[in-house]
Amino acid sequence: MRGAAxxxxxxxxxxxxxxxxxxxxxxxxxxxxxxxxxxxDDMAELLQKMIDADILVLASPVYFYSIDAQLKAVIDRTVxxxxxxxxxxxxxxxxxxxxxxxxxxxxxxxxRGYAACVEGAKEKGVxxxxxxxxxxxxxxxxxxxxxxxxxxxx
Length: 154
What we know:
The chain has 154 residues and is an alpha/beta fold. It has six helices and three strands.
């Protein structure tokens, strides 16, 4: 984020865990109500930001070989206006306690699965933060530098 901002980009970090975003109930209320969700929470604002953004950086710890529940809820809730989320550059950042990248294969497949549904999506970068378990363990690792340089290149 810092690298992208220093390169002159407008950036915003959104932490789904700090927002009130419920999971999709597949009621398809949105289909009959011009993309409005039946649930009135923070997702409508976030979805508009996703639609307006040129770049989406999806970051998640690896939980049982997949993304965390909060990011999954965000992805699923984009169904309300998913055809408007288009022409995005995607970057992925994953962290896991495991020291091998293969532990992140399913997580990356989940992130790529979402992008595969986004018209005009382009994958631009992936960071595999392996061996990162405890809070703060990423400090002093090469992953922060990788993320900074990836941001600078935007």
